[in-house]
Amino acid sequence: MKRTIASLLLSFLFIALVFYFLPFHELIQDLKKIDLLTFFSAFLLYTLSQITRSLKWSILLKIPFKESFFLNSANLFLNNVLPARSGELSWFYYTKRLSIELKYSFWGFIIGRIYDMMGLLTVVFFSYLWVKFGISQALSFLVLLIIFSPFFQKVIFLIPEFWKFKEIKNFLIREFSPKLSFLLFSISVVSFFLKAASTYLIVSSVSNLDLFIYILGFLGGELSSVLPIHGFMGYGTYEAGFLIPLKITGIEIKEGLKIGFLAHNFLLFSSAIWGILSILYLQIFSRKAP
Questions:
Q1: 204: how many CB neighbours lie within 10 A of its CB?
Q2: Can you give the pLDDT at residue 290?
Q3: pTM of the entire structure?
Q4: How many CB atoms are located within 10 Å of the residue 281 CB?
Q5: Which among 62, 130, 158, 252 counts the fewest CB atoms within 10 Å?
Q6: What is the predicted pLDDT for the residue at 6?
């Protein structure tokens, strides 16, 4: 209850802050600059990012792609909407409805999140190298990481062999192969690149912000999603995460708030479209665990 109240207070304070720095009529003027072609192109890129992300879950959980897409979309939407990270519980609720064993759903969730983080950080460094040194150096960096990605799973052997850790280690050794590591890393990079590109397409309609600086803000916004408490629908914490790296690079508060607000609302709207449809499917048509 306290965390829910804290989430609502964060959102209220943020909305007050937005309209203090960014008058409503200016926000409307900026929204009018985003034409339908740009919006639908951005939504297509966002959809492709969720398709690739869902492919990762399909591989990890060994379920049909259709089910992994609905699972991913429902979990993402509920995580955006429900306060205090309670949306994460939907992952385990829906994997149970899809008859997925708890050990697979739990470790699939953990491993997937780890590769999400690696994919996000790779996109950040890739964009930095692209802007700073050119596309050839950026591609060289990406290819090098992809070549070494099959060896990422070797960190399993660092897990100690006592208590439950031994059981965990044996499970991962059986299930986690170099090929799987390569696939998960490659898919995560593509997914986050498409997601970042979709929001940048929206923001570039109202701002000439440098790609790498924008990606830094995008990184901050995405990292805010792992906080134990965030604002209702992410309002406040997402924009704060977006604003902090932009402010460090010299972007004024008003501009940073506008960029974060537009990117965030686009992601919320896009996730709601697929999320609501996915929840309906999972509630009505998914098979229940015995």
A1: 15
A2: 40
A3: 0.85
A4: 17
A5: 158
A6: 61
